[in-house]
Amino acid sequence: MINYILVFITSFLLGGLSFSYIFGMIYDHTDIRTKGSKNAGATNAYRSYGLKVGVLSLVCDMLKAVVAVFIAKKLGDKTLEAFAALVVVLSHMYSYMLQFKGGKGVASSAGALLIIDWRIFIVLVIVFVVVFLITKIVSISSLTAAIFAPISTLVFYGLEERLLFLFILIMVIMVFYRHKANIIRIKNKQEKRLI
User: Fold this and answer.
1) Is the pLDDT assigned to residue 195 strictly greater than 80?
2) What span, in angstroms and rounded, lies between the C-alpha atoms of 9 and 194?
3) How far is residue 157 CA from its own chain's centroid?
4) Which whole number is the average pLDDT over 52-73?
């Protein structure tokens, strides 16, 4: 039980660090939530502040999840890792730095899955890249890749790690929920291409 408490605290604190907000304030002295799509995430950081800030935000959002899940890996099993992943992603989405508003959880989910199982991460990267090359739209690429997270978990683990599958499924559902405005724009053919 103590390990779950420790992992919850560290994952919550790490997840709530909004790097797109931090780098936006450093780079331009502006709140990223007033720019572009008003989302505190790497894609909006790229559109609002340029490639450097976008990449820094992406890498740091991934790294905070990597650290959170790595700590869980040292303290417990796959279930604890998945618990850490869920907490860090939810904390990113509802950041204490931003009055419990935040990003959409794609980069932090990717970082978490990299530590949980690099094979799942590779599958999602391949799916993301292929879809992005076809559509040039980050949200479609992210959501398509997200679908493959629970599917890959079942492929690699079967039903042996039920809680791992459950936590990843919840994480994916939350990613879709946070993309609800994007999904409406996709449906209406109004979603912007990145390049």
Assistant:
1) no
2) 35
3) 22
4) 96
